Queue: 3 jobs
Job 1
Amino acid sequence: MIIKQDHLIESIHSALQYISYYHSPDFINAMVSAYQRETNQSAKNAIEQILINSKMCALGKRPICQDTGIVNVFVEVGMNIEWESDLSLEDMINEGVRRAYNEPDNRLRASIVSDPLFSRSNTQDNTPAVIHTKLVKGDKLEITVAAKGGGSENKSKFTVLNPDDNLTDWVLRTIPTMGAGWCPPGMIGIGVGGTAEKAMSMAKASLMETIDINDIKAKKNQSDIEKLRIDLFEKINALGIGAQGLGGLTTVLDVKINDYPTHAASLPVAMIPNCASTRHVHFSLDGSGVAELPEIDLSLYPDLEMDVSKYIKVDLDSLTQAQMDKWNIGDTLLLSGTIITGRDAAHKRLKLMIESGEGLPEGVDFENKFIYYVGPVDAVRDEVIGPAGPTTATRMDKFTDLILENTGLLGMIGKAERGKATVESIRKHKASYLIAVGGAAYLISKSIKKAKVIAFEEMGMEAIYEMEVKDMPVTVAVDTDGENIHKTLNNIPLTFKG
């Protein structure tokens, strides 16, 4: 069987474009079920936005999330395959990644930086991918392509337990420490055994499997692993973290466990979450041409529309402190007016400029403004901006007090929880922290009516933008009194009884 270079490159290209805007049917069905069950209104609103966003992306063929991920590729190479190629397997895959992320009609955000310890220079094409290769019997090439967002990847956990330690106890202690930055509801992948790197690889690979927890529950003769999956699924959801950390019934859609023999003295355990933008697809190449990818049935989506009558309309350009003081955690707002953006690298440079006495960059004025933690996808066609969902606000905690103290900023918009010291700083400065839904990037981008770079243009997605928004949906997470909607993440007990 001869695999041609162009067929593999084009298949990788097509697969990455496909997963940027299509959720798999099992994920859609699981989210619809979670939406129908949910009784917590804030969490239900978040799941609703994720589903609306997903359908919009499927129709518009634009990214589900502004973080279009680091590419993970799992390859099983049949030992009878012959190649018609002048590139290595790794180089062919990376050429497919390069073409996918620079596709003119659906440009994807390049997030990969080389020299991770020092210059952290963006590679501009999202290469290189992380590639796992296995030689197997046969004459086919089996490939699973995934795009893993930084918010969920950053919450990966690893430990080496003692052989007689309880895995469930460790998982239930650890899940609350992950906060909401991994954008639940999603999947939890667990790898047990082998060595450290084997456990991590198994955990990552498990996230590529189909959501099937309800099928497992219905089985009459469940294996020990399946019983453990069900037990963890139920106990994690019983923690009450919920969608986006807002509480509610669904934190995880499934729990996957892969295991491997290990040393008698060890019990390596890896745990990796997949977010509400979970993106992966499997395909085969047999020498006959480019991979065929599954059709998506749009009828799987319920007919949902945001009920804006439940939202409070806010004019950011005339917002007063007295108006903001009336907000309570859980209030849902529709923001209109001017916001300024800024992420990690921008905050680092702003800190240096403020501390040196240089002040803010020319053209950047935070006075009576909100800052939005976002790194948008580039615009295509007639877009004002590409998908522009929030990044994890917790990473900006170390800068928050300095920024609030020196800029006149009213508040912040991001996703996930803030640390205790940051919440206290928000209270001290009578500011607010609002959350937008992670996993609703395309939906949010439609509320952005104007966007222009006003500082640090050379930093690409990390540049500072001024944006004009109309009815941007957010939820009050920390109010001016320091009340915190995510406080349950800090109050979940470290041991689970049950």
Job 2
Amino acid sequence: MADKVKLGIIYGGRSGEHDVSLMSARSVLSVIDREKFDVVEIGITRQGQWLVGENLWEKMEQERFEDLLPAVLLPVPNNAGIYTRQNGQMTPYADLDVIFPVMHGTFSEDGTLQGLLELADIAYVGAGVLASSVCMDKGLFKDVMIANHIPTLPYTVFSRNELEADLEACLKATESIAPYPLFTKPANLGSSVGISKCTSRSDLMEGLMQAALYDRRVVVEMGVDQAQEIEISVLGNEDPVTSIPGEIVPKDIFYTFAEKYINDTAELLVPADLPQATIRQIQELAIKAYKATDCAGMGRVDFLIDKQTGDLYLNEINTIPGFTKISMYPKLWEASGLPYANLIEKLIDLAFERKAQRDKTEREFRS
């Protein structure tokens, strides 16, 4: 039998989406083919400490770390593995061939973790540094969409300093982009953490302050009062393909964190009931945005359709979408004929493919 692939799965993280990462990781771990993969779990605490050890997921979920070992991935080539630190000594713990970061939010999905993996010169699932950082920052992402003539909602961006220095000016500038409702969001977070729907100036003030708790950059965008929320999954590197689209019908005022991960009240319609022409447009725009941001491996692309006007807006790309059993990314591929376990293996294959492309790049120049 061929040697098993040494697969590192990283989860947790110093992010507001720590708990979502644990949920996603549990699902991924439950379907990994242990005949093909030798799995090494790596947990990152809310404070940013890397840990390894027995029954890691359960201990991470319970936040009982006393029996776990501090771990580190060295940011140098030719040392692709996890080391532990004990009594001031670095000890090899496990070699790795590829890493699957089942991570969401800051310090994980925003290019920071990807930068470490690039320095370590190891294959990893998902987008690289550039795509991760651009797609994470909602303001910068919208700039790229506009530059590529991809429709997106009117918006403005404020820094935390600007809000603290002159909140009144920020409120006036915000109200000039569109009538209420407006949405306030941390620029660099996901899973609807810190998002508010604002229908008045007092709501707006509270929403801006709430978003600024989670990021130093805050995005405010026009709300679509009667919106159809459409999501589509993308898979691939240089030649990506799309799934069928799905629709989310929230029961709350919008698709909140509680609806996504606690109450499970939102209705997921797969496939979405859309005209074929609209489906083709969504698929084409999803691929265009995916390529424009240099995404790789996977991405879930979110759209809004104004039910009153029929206008279509591309909202965002999630470069590490949710991977729970109820998450839209795997559900859409399942409905498109690619089962969950096969999807995981395909993503790992794409990670090796992307690494092979990186390895073709010359790293030295001598005249």
Job 3
Amino acid sequence: MRVVIAGAGAVGTFLADDLAASGHEVVLVEKNVGGIESPPTGGSVQLVSADACEVDVLQQIRLEEADVVVATTGDDEDNLVISLLAKQEFAVPRVIARVNHPKNHWLFNETWGVDISVSTPHLLSALVEEAVSVGALVRLLQFEGGNARLVEVTLVPESPAAGRSIVEVGLPREATVVAVVRDGHVVVPRGDTVLGAGDEVLMLVTGDSDDEVRRLLVVP
């Protein structure tokens, strides 16, 4: 897989080294190479000194051949410009963008070419909520501008789904159980998988199915 990462800060550099160590072809673009605190250690990482917001730069690094573009600069405006160019000008299949300021999160959607946005404050908030919220539907991640979400609920004994198989629960077509965490182990869900109290149920939901999923899994 060919991955182009814009921004060689701590996040971009770590990501570049990690992906390169897994055997991926990685191009790391940074306009201020002299200011990099921790240069990539992976010898297979191609470090390019340039501005990833410039179309000619993206042409030179053959962005159209990238499978994934990750915009990880410390500037939300730059990340949006890079995402838009990657998607509209170079038709990159997957564009992931970092959100630096939580108030800008609403901008990071398909209109700006972003397939997946990552906001550290929002992610931390979701993880904290997931850790302390038992019996509540918690949103962990969102995709496609929020139209698709990864949600989690830890079932309590009184849950309408406890003791019933996934098929019997009757989830809407817009909701799919992707994993069940039980006693610290991941259970690959099947239609006949019986849910129980204490199970952490992870689901991919789309559209407006949250309320229906909540009705079926959460105690009123």
